[in-house]
Amino acid sequence: MTNECFYCGFKDPMPFTCKFCGGTYCYNHRLPESHNCSGLTAYKTKAIETGILYKPGTLVGKKQNPFIRNLKHIASVITSNYSLTILILCLISFVIQNINVKYTYYFELVPSDIFTRPWILITHMFLHDTSNVLHILFNMMVLFFFGPELERRIGGKRFLAVYFISGLVAALGYSFWTFYVLGSNGPAIGASGALMGIFACLAILAPDIVVYVYFIPTKITYALIFFILLDLFLNSSGDRVAHSAHLSGVVAGLVFGKYIKKSGNYLR
Q: Do the Cβ atoms of 149 and 202 come closer than 8 Å?
């Protein structure tokens, strides 16, 4: 069973199954009237012809064991929602990093190696600093809260495009700044660049969302401006944070957000 809405194509982390046709639908099209339910029409026709009111559930199929059903639901929520799938992959990758040190060396982003080992432009997004648990904790919290929200609005396929292209632009921006401007070749790991793209894209499409920055409630657009200014200020500080990757990811996210908003093809 797919968790992509049969009517509009959106992937919902908690989809609804129509009791008349058995199809899977998002929150906005969960009602039979909202997705032009063929099962409802068949139900009404059968009821008129036979004069018997059947239970809607009998049109969908047999009931499953509650435990099995709950396990399948949990699995379907993870696999049908790209945000959560990426989150699980990052956690698995983090465990492997702690087991095998060479794993990190092989997949981390090294500016001088992007042409000889091009896969590192993507694989670095699934790595995090094993010496600092807050690195993966903070990134996964951002992905957990903002990823599904953007995915619900623009659909799974476009969410993947925003995530990976933002991460790719962040990798290229970091490599250029580090190697050609600073004359360094320090490696980088983390999903921060891609997540900043997600954050920026969501800020364009839903500017009135309220988020908390250091426990202070503010609109997501103001939060984005704050993080941009912070990265600009700290970009040459010499700390271990890839601020140039953050800023490059933001640029990609803003471009995506403007394009999607102009097309009008997103959930408001």
A: yes
Question: Is residue 52 exposed (0-12), middle (13-18) or buried (19+ Cβ within 10 Å)?
Answer: exposed
Which residues of 172-247 form beta strands (DSSP E)? 210-213, 216-219
214 CB-side CA count, 13 A: 3
Residue ranges of alpha helices (H) inside 51-81 are: 66-80
Domain ranges of the chain: 16-61, 81-263
pTM greater than the 0.70 cutoff: yes
Structure tokens at 100: 């095998």
Contacts of 123 by beta carbon, 8 Å cutoff, 6+ apart: 107, 108
Average pLDDT, the chain: 86
Spatial contact of 233 and 243, defined as CB atoms under 8 Å apart: no
**Which tokens in the block code for residue 145?**
């809260």
Nearest residue to 43 via CA among 18, 7, 66, 68:
18
Output the CA torsion 254→10→76→67 (10° steps): 130
Q: Nearest-5° angle of CA 220, CA 192, CA 206?
A: 25
Whose CA is closest to 82, among 177, 158, 18? Answer: 158
For the stretch 96-134, pLDDT in tens is: 999 998 999 999 999 999 999 999 999 999 999 999 999
Top CATH class, 81-263: mainly alpha
Cα–Cα distance between 114 and 103 in angstroms, integer? 17
CA 262, 256, 220, 160 torsion: positive or negative? positive
Q: How far apart are CA 65 and CA 18, in angstroms?
A: 19
